[in-house]
């Protein structure tokens, strides 16, 4: 059974503070995987997270939230020693089990590729 969501009544009001996410799917040009964990924080429309795992040694993102939408920039250090940065826009969805999912569209600023990804809350 596929998970459902209600983006109108719950995704705009759910807090991201303290939630932990992992990659579910990503474009081939992305570096986030199921081994990558994001630890989110939120305060008054400002969002930020620390992330690591898989190909990523350490990463940070910071941006803003407007209802069910996130807009942020990210930067990280990969296991090969290269740094990378980019921009991402996400739509927040709440799954039927109460977990949160982000559907993301991103673009590297440190190289030419773009892509889409999905990350979901883990418990």
TrEMBL record:
InterPro entries assigned: Avidin-like
A Pfam family it matches: Avidin_like
Protein name: N-acetylglutamate synthase
Taxonomic lineage from the root: Bacteria, Bacillati, Actinomycetota, Actinomycetes, Propionibacteriales
């Amino acid at each position: 059974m596929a998970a459902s969501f209600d983006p109108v009544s719950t995704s705009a009001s759910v807090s991201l503070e303290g939630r932990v996410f992992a990659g579910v799917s990503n474009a081939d040009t992305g570096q986030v995987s199921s081994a990558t964990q994001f630890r989110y924080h939120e305060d008054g429309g400002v969002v930020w997270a620390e992330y690591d795992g898989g190909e990523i040694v350490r990463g940070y993102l910071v941006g803003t939230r407007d209802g069910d939408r996130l807009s942020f920039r990210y930067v990280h250090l990969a296991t090969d020693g290269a740094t990378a940065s980019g921009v991402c826009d996400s739509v927040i969805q709440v799954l039927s089990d109460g977990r949160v999912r982000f559907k993301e569209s991103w673009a590297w600023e440190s190289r030419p590729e773009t892509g889409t990804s999905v990350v979901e809350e883990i418990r």
